[in-house]
Amino acid sequence: xxxxGPEPGRGRASVGGRSVxxxxxxxxxxxxxxVPGPSFPLTVRGWRPGDRIRFGYGTKKLxxxxxxxxxxxxxxxxxxxxxxxxxxxxxxVGVARAEGVGEDGVGFEITVADAGQR
Length: 118
Known about the structure:
Layout: E1 2-3, E2 9-15, E3 18-24, E4 33-35, E5 42-45, E6 52-55, E7 58-61, H1 62-68, H2 73-77, E8 81-83, E9 89-92, E10 96-97, E11 108-117
C-alpha cells in the first residue's frame, strides 16, 4: 500500500498473507505513530533483506531485531514495515519505531491494524 501525500485516507495491505487495515491523517486512530515531516510516498510492505532501522545509538538490521524479539519466520513475513520515499524504515509494526518517530504528537499520523488472515 502506498500513501502518496498527507491527505487523510484508508486502505488495506497484504503482508505475508496477513491483511492489515491502514489509516492515515489527523484522525488515523489509536495505536499508530506520528512522523514529523514525512518524505512521501510512505509504503506499507513486508520486510526485505538488508532493511535497517535507525535508533538513537545507530542502525540495526531487521533480521537481528526479529531474532532479538524471538519472532519466528511466519511472524517475520507477516510483520508490516512502514518506509518513506528514501527507503528508511520508520516503523516495524508491533516491534519498533525509528528514532524521531513518536506515538503521538505533531506530525503525520499513520495506523496499521490487523484485519485478519487471508
